[in-house]
Design brief:
Blueprint (H helix, E strand, L loop, with lengths): L6 H5 L3 H11 L6 E3 H10 L7 H19 L6 E3 H16 L17 H42 L8
Helix pairs in contact: 2-3, 3-6, 4-5, 4-6
Length: about 160
């Protein structure tokens, strides 16, 4: 996607291009990707920049704020339809960045403050762990692409890189 990548640009991709990228990371061809596969996919789109830690922070933010809403059936896997929703929600969030939102979880009023706090802390911990795993895979993807480019440049066989 290039250095000027944004969620808006990804959201504007043709469905065919988006499907091609999605299918590339659906390694088992199940029709879904998990959150760990999402990191390398987003790195391919050019949406993850910087160090592994910076990518982990960005992914953690996305997992906490967007992924749970996009995973409509709650199975922890992202179908292509859910992925399109994920991209749409992330693009809207990027566009509205800095604007205040008063949206809370559906059950927040019914829960005590302590229960809500513990639920939120657990969700944040899970999101952080998933983000770190996805960022690590995205970093590996970035490094492999660099090695492939170097091998191609020097005329070496790419098979010896793994």
């Amino acid at each position: 996607m290039g250095s000027g990548a944004s969620w808006g640009k990804v959201a504007e991709m043709s469905e065919t291009d988006m499907r091609t990228a999605f299918d590339k990371w659906d390694a088992d061809k199940s029709g879904t990707i998990d959150d760990a596969e999402l990191g390398p996919l987003l790195e391919d789109f050019g949406l993850l920049k910087g160090s592994e830690e910076a990518m982990a922070q960005r992914l953690e933010d996305l997992f906490k704020s967007v992924l749970s809403e996009a995973d409509q059936n709650g199975d922890g896997l992202i179908s292509f339809e859910e992925f399109k929703l994920f991209v749409k929600l992330a693009a809207e969030r990027e566009q509205n960045k800095g604007k205040k939102s008063a949206v809370k979880g559906k059950d927040a009023k019914a829960l005590s403050n302590d229960t809500e706090r513990m639920r939120k802390e657990a969700a944040e911990r899970r999101a952080r762990e998933k983000a770190e795993q996805a960022a690590k895979l995205a970093q590996q993807n970035k490094e492999m692409k660099q090695k492939l480019a170097e091998a191609k440049k020097s005329g070496k066989d790419a098979k010896g890189l793994t």
